Amino acid sequence: MAEFPDVTLHYFDLRGRGQFIRGLLSHHQVPFTDDRIKLAKDNSNWPQIRSDRNLSGDFQKLPFLQWDDMRLNEVLVILEFLDSALTDPDDFSDIDWLRHRQLTSSAFLDLLVACINLIWCDIFHPETNVAAATGILKRRMEMHLATLDQTLTEWEWTAGMADRPVMASDAVLWEALDVIRLTFDEHVSFDDREALSAFYDGCPGAPAFKKLLSQKAQTITGRPGEPEALAIIHESLAEN
Ligand SMILES: N[C@@H](CCC(=O)N[C@@H](CS)C(=O)NCC(=O)O)C(=O)O
Questions:
Q1: The whole model's pTM is what?
Q2: Lesser CB count within 10 Å: N end or C end of the chain?
Q3: Which residue's C-alpha comes closest to atom 14 of ligand 1?
Q4: In terms of DSSP H, where are the helices of 38-167?
Q5: Which residues of the chain have pLDDT under 70?
Q6: Under a CB-based contact definition with an 8 Å cutoff, are residues 60 and 54 in contact?
Q7: What Rg, from alpha-carbon coordinates, does the chain have?
Q8: Residue to substitute in 15, 17, 73 for testing ligand 1 pocket (most ligand atoms within 8 angstroms of CB)
Q9: 7-86 under CATH 3.30.9.100, yes or no
C-alpha cells in the first residue's frame, strides 16, 4: 500500500461540499481523520469553530484539508491538489489534465453547488418564490446535463474511465449526479443521457462512494428542515 502522510479532512457531518473529498480519499485508500464537525441546532458553536484556524484553515471555511504540513481551503484547489498527490500528472496529456479540471469545476459549481443553493434558497433569500426558483433551476439543470452529456460523448470519456485512476472529477461528478436525483426527484433525469448514465453506473469509484454513503446516511446540506424543504421542491416540480 502507498505511504501517506497524516491527513485530516475537517468538514461538517453532511454531504455538501465535502462528501466527494471523503469519497476520493476512501477510493484511494488514504488513511485519514474524518473530522465531522457537528453544529449545534442554532449554529451557536460555529463562531468558535470558525475562529479556530486549526479547524477551519486560513480562509475560515470548510472543507479544510490538512495533508502533512500542507493546509488547504477552497474545494477546487483541494481537488487539484489531491489529483496531483494521488495520481502521476505526467501520465496525463495537458489536454486531458485540463479536461479533468474543467469537468471538476463544472460538476462542482454548475451542478452540485446549484442544488445546494436551491435547498437553502428561502433561508438565504427570505423573499424567494421557491417554486419559481425551482422551475428556473430545473431548466438550467437540464441544459447543463445535455451539454455535459454531449461533451463527455465527444471526449469519449466513459470508454477510457477504467484505464485511468479515479480522479477528483469522478468523485465530484458522481456526487453531483446523485444529489441531482435527490433534489429533483424524478423530474430531472439523466437516465436517457447515454454518457452520463454510463458514467453514473460504471464509474470505477462508484462502489467506494456508495459504500461511504451506506456506512453513514447523510443529509445533503446543513439546512434546518432539509426533508421538508426537499418536499416543497418536489411538490412544485410535480405541479409544473
Ligand atoms: N469558496 C469555498 C466555499 C466554502 C463554503 O462556503 N463552505 C461552507 C460550508 S459548505 C462554510 O464554511 N460556511 C460557513 C461560513 O461561510 O461561515 C469553497 O469552495 O471551498
A1: 0.97
A2: N
A3: 61
A4: 46-51, 53-56, 75-86, 94-106, 113-124, 130-154, 157-160
A5: 1
A6: no
A7: 18
A8: 17
A9: no
Distances (CA, A) of 3 to 7, 29, 152: 11, 10, 33
C-beta 13 within 6 A of ligand 1: no
Could you tell me the three cell numbers for 53? Answer: 484556524
pLDDT at 181: 97
- What pLDDT, on the 0 to 100 scale, is given for residue 1? 66
Taking the centre of ligand 1 as the mean of its atom positions, its distance from the CA of residue 239, in whole angstroms, is: 33
CA geometry: angle at 171 spanning 168 and 177, to 5°? 130
Query: Which pLDDT score, from 0 to 100, does residue 218 have?
Result: 87
Report the distance separating Cα 38 and Cα 44, nearest Å: 11
CATH architecture under which domain 89-239 falls = Up-down Bundle (1.20)
Looking up cell 496531483, which residue turns up?
84
Q: Is there a contact between 202 and 170 (Cβ–Cβ < 8 Å)?
A: no
